[in-house]
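Fold this: histidine kinase
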Amino acid sequence: MRAGPRPTGLRARVAAAFGLGALLVSAVLAGSTFLLARGYLLDQRESAATAAAFVDADFLRSRLATAGTGVDDVLAELSTEGGDVVVRRGDSWYSTSLEVGARDVPAGLRAIVESGSAGRERVDSPAGPRLVVGVPVAGAGLDVYEVAPLGELRSVLTTLSWVLGAAALAASAAGAGVGLWASRRVVQPLDQVAGAATRIAAGELTTRLPATDDPDLVAIVGSFNTMVDALAARIDRDARFVGDVSHELRSPLTSLTTAVEVMGARRGELDDRSRQALTLVEQQLARFRATLDDLLQLARLDNDPGARGDEPVAVGGLVREVLAASGRPAGLLETDPEEDTVVRGDKAWLERAVRNLLDNADRHAGGARAVRVARRGASVVLTVDDAGPGIPPEDRERVFERFARGPRAARGSLPGAGLGLAIVADVAARHGGGAWASASPAGGARLSLSLPAGPA
């Protein structure tokens, strides 16, 4: 299944909107400016050519009124700075230039002038665009045509179009830049909220948004800080409740334990059914004590989730100590004694996490098959492999939740209260690491604990 297109971010959309808006406005302004300038320059050129045509026509009429004066002689006296002059007299054509002649006078304009009216027309020629103005000279039998080149005007308009286009693109880029700047200013409060939420999720419940004078943000900041206050109060209340309940249960639990121990000392005086009942009570009492101890540990973690020790702890050595203290074989540990496995943290909590991983393997998989400690980049990773039934992929995240217990088919009778791995996950998070489950090469489950490596 192909992934869909990645959605565009808010900043990019705001910058694009500003850029497109600037492009639209600048394009309209550039187009309007070009059309107005083009119309104005063409009108000016046509007016100048028309005026020059009438002046030349009057000059020809007055000079040709003198007997013996030829058209060629008069044309030689004309100024051709504004354009060339073509004259028709009867069936003869005369011109001030060898390059311009009767062929350059359009037939439509010729018909208008021959009918006795003045006219003008723009034409294209191999030499470039031209404006031809025709003026009839009444009484002299002359038709005068002023041929004005428009190539220079076209060059000016082309240059103007390039300048206006470049200005439109520059305005669009400036609009996009302003949009990017504005989007950063708009998104900045959201970044602050996201950063504060991330720190709160990491356990820094004292994090609050700074006060602001912006009337549009006052309500958001106030609501967010109020929500965090309520959340912190709720977490603190729940943690105190668990701690208080656990402490209150210790006294009756101690009394009950003492009574059961007294009964256990006189086990030989009991009949078979009473001894079975006593054994069951001892097992459940041991489970109750373990659960109560786990609840107290979780309450301590919840009361101060952001605190952590800063002493150097060699994870490989710590695992050896736990294996020795619990009577497990030292050969379970597979690690290089020379490898740097030092982390910084609270040794007591880390020891508890290691013990819980080993106890979990004992409880659900008949014991650990291998324990490995290795340095992986900037982390030290502890893995515990077992040969039990394993953990289904859909339950590998859930087993680290509190009171989470896998399906009975996969975990047998499921002893324990489902708090051991929750403590492991909380200790890992407290030290900036993580915990996860995967499949073991031994055929069972592999539980991993990752901690940031630190200097010794």
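The chain has a mean pLDDT of 82. The first strand starts at residue 84 and ends at 89.
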